[in-house]
Specification:
284 residues; alpha/beta; Rossmann fold; seven-stranded parallel beta sheet; two-stranded parallel sheet; 13 helices
C-alpha cells in the first residue's frame, strides 16, 4: 500500500491525480474532512485526522510499504515531519519519500530551507530507505499572478535580477509517481528544475511572445509584498519566510538547472512556453 499526504494541496494533489490516472491504488491521509469530501480524485482509502494524533498515524501507516511526506510550511512543520518519520519507521514503512526543495543546502539561512534540511537528516537517520524530491520554483506560481498579467500586463515579484528555473508541477508529479511505483530510487536525492535559468525580465518576455502583447516585469518592493500578504491574513512568521525566500532568489540562490527530470522521465521537462499555452484562459 502507498500512503500519500498533502493530497488537498498542489503537489500532493498532482501526485494523487497521476496515481489515479495510472490506476495505482493508494491511501490518503487528510486532516480536513470537508476537503476530503471535495476531492476530485478519490483515493482507494482515506484516513481523516491530524499527523499530531498517534492513533491517526497508526491507522494511516498500517500496512504501508511506501509513504510520501508532503507538509505545508508551518511553525511546527519540522516537529510534525519528524513525528511522521518516527511513526513510519516503527510501522515498518520501507521507503519514505519527502518533498523538499533545491535550495535546501548546507548553509541555507531561510526558515523554510532550514526545516527541510533538518527533516531530511531525520529521515536519513531513521533506518528506512528514502528519496528526497527537491524541486525549485514552480511554474504554477505564475497562476497567482494571472489577474495582474491579464489586466495590468505585469509580473510583480521582489526578485530583482535573480534567476529562477521554472519547474512544472506536472513534471514533479510524474517523477514522484515513478519513485512511488518503481524500484531503484532508494537513497537518492533528486534535484528537479525546468529546462532554463531565467530572470524575471526574460520570463516576462516569454509571456509577451506567447500572449502576443507586452508583459513587463516589475521588481516589487518588499514592503509592498508584505502589505499584500498581510491583506490576505497570512501570519507574520509566514510573511517573513516568503520574503526571505525572495531575498535569496534576488541574491542568486537559484543558479543552475539539472537534467534529472529528463533522465528520469525520458523526455525534456515542460517549458515555460508550454505552461503558458496550457493556461491561456488564466492569462488572457
Amino acid at each position: 500500500m502507498l500512503l500519500v499526504t498533502g493530497v488537498t494541496g498542489k503537489t500532493g494533489g498532482e501526485v494523487a491525480r497521476q496515481l489515479a490516472a495510472a490506476g495505482v491504488p493508494f491511501r490518503a491521509l487528510i486532516r480536513n474532512r470537508a476537503k476530503a469530501d471535495a476531492l476530485q480524485v478519490r483515493p482507494a482509502e482515506t484516513v481523516i485526522g491530524d499527523v499530531a494524533d498517534d492513533a491517526v498515524l497508526a491507522q494511516a501507516l498500517q500496512g504501508a510499504e511506501r509513504a510520501l511526506l508532503v507538509m505545508p510550511n508551518g511553525q511546527d512543520q519540522l516537529q510534525l515531519e519528524q513525528r511522521f518519520t518516527a511513526h513510519a519507521a516503527r510501522a515498518g514503512v520501507q521507503h519514505l519519500i519527502k518533498l523538499s526543495s533545491l535550495e535546501s543546502v548546507p548553509g541555507s539561512t531561510t526558515p523554510f530551507t532550514q526545516v527541510h534540511l533538518a527533516s531530511e537528516q531525520s529521515i536519513r537517520d531513521s533506518g528506512m530507505s528514502w528519496t528526497m524530491i527537491r524541486p525549485t520554483f514552480f511554474t504554477q506560481t505564475f497562476l497567482t499572478s494571472g489577474a495582474r498579467i491579464r489586466e495590468q500586463q505585469i509580473i510583480s515579484m521582489p526578485a530583482g535580477k535573480g534567476t529562477i528555473a521554472p519547474t512544472d508541477l506536472r513534471d514533479v508529479g510524474a517523477v514522484i509517481l515513478r519513485v512511488l511505483t518503481e524500484p531503484g530510487h532508494e537513497n537518492q536525492s533528486y534535484d528537479l528544475t525546468g529546462p532554463e535559468l531565467l530572470t524575471l525580465d526574460q520570463i516576462a518576455a516569454r509571456f509577451s511572445l506567447v500572449l502576443g502583447r507586452e508583459i513587463r516585469y516589475v521588481d516589487q518592493p518588499q514592503v509592498e509584498l508584505r502589505a499584500r500578504l498581510a491583506a490576505i491574513n497570512l501570519a507574520p512568521w509566514r510573511i517573513d519566510g516568503v520574503c526571505r525566500e525572495f531575498e535569496a532568489i534576488a541574491a542568486g540562490v537559484i543558479d543552475h538547472t539539472t537534467g534529472t527530470i529528463a533522465r528520469l522521465l525520458g523526455r525534456p521537462p515542460l517549458s515555460l512556453e508550454q505552461f503558458i499555452r496550457d493556461h491561456l484562459a488564466v492569462f488572457r
